[in-house]
Amino acid sequence: MIDLYYWTTPNGHKITMFLEECGLAYTIKPINISKGEQFAADFLKVAPNNRIPAIVDHAPAGGGAPLSIFESGAILLYLADKTKRFIPQDLHGRNDCLQWLFWQMGGLGPMAGQNHHFVQYAPEQLPYAIERYVKETSRLYGVLNKRLSDGRDYICGEYSIADMAAYPWIVPHERQRQDLKIFPAVEAWFVRVKSRAATKTAYEIAKSINVSPTVDEKAKAILFGQDAKTVR
């Protein structure tokens, strides 16, 4: 059994997508980040960076004590290695998959996240910041489009954790001021991932957990007002 500390963010969706694909037994432990639940002492023991998602695997491979992991990319890699699914088992294929996983973790996620912040949530519209992150998001969509333009169905050929990592960050493309029509290979890939049964289930789960996905001023203060004093 796996405990999944989760909220309905792109990084949270990655893990429910994987778990639903594999049919692993798991229990969701909601962490409402808009209410500050990510600062609870018990959660910080699992996720010292006070971010979701995080997991505790009560039956790690090889036995032994429960294993806790934070950071969505690390969780995807752990689960892929645990199940031997959704990551190639040969050296070249594995490293191809890992570099695209890290591309999402280091590029698409952070840049789209800053895009979301300055376009949707910043208290004032800052044209330079908006242009900077909208353009960089566009560039990253272009990188993905070029990768997918050789006829492959998924980022690494077969469906993998690279796709699960990237897809949730493409879902809010309109909020990122991106038009998928400009990126036809990404658009076709997006439809394929969206159509998978596990993807549908993961997003239905999200709707049942966060029934009112709004960010009010109090939530903004919690989400965007953190500094070193927050770490306790």
TrEMBL record:
SUPFAM superfamilies: GST C-terminal domain-like, Thioredoxin-like. Pfam families: GST_C, GST_N. CDD domains: GST_C_YfcG_like, GST_N_Ure2p_like. Residues 90-222 form the GST C-terminal domain. Residues 1-87 form the GST N-terminal domain. InterPro entries: Glutathione-S-Trfase_C-like, Glutathione-S-Trfase_C_sf, Glutathione_S-Trfase, Glutathione_S-Trfase_N, GST_C, Thioredoxin-like_sf. Belongs to the GST superfamily. This is Glutathione S-transferase N-terminal domain-containing protein. It comes from Zwartia hollandica. The lineage of its organism: Bacteria, Pseudomonadati, Pseudomonadota, Betaproteobacteria, Burkholderiales.
